[in-house]
Amino acid sequence: MRTQVGIIGAGPAGLLLSRLLALQGIDSVVLENRSRDYVEARIRAGILEQHTVDTLSAVGLGDRLHREGLEHSGIYLQYPGTRHKLDFPELCGRTVWVYGQTEVVKDLIAAQLDGGPPLLFEVSDVQPEDVDTDSPRIRFTDADGNPQLLECDVIAGTDGFHGPSRTLVQESSRGRTWERTYPYAWLGILADAAPATDELIYAWHPEGFALYSMRSPKVSRLYLQVDPSEKIEDWSDERIWDALDTRFALDGWSVNRGPVTDKSILPMRSFVSAPMRRGRLFLAGDAAHIVPPTGAKGLNLAVADVTLLATALVRLLQEGRSDLVDAYSDTALRRVWRCTHFSWFMTSMLHRSGDDFDAQLQLSQLERVCSSEAAARELAENYTGLPIG
Ligand code: APR
Ligand code: PHB
Question: Fewer CB within 10 Å, N or C, the chain?
Answer without folding.
Answer: C
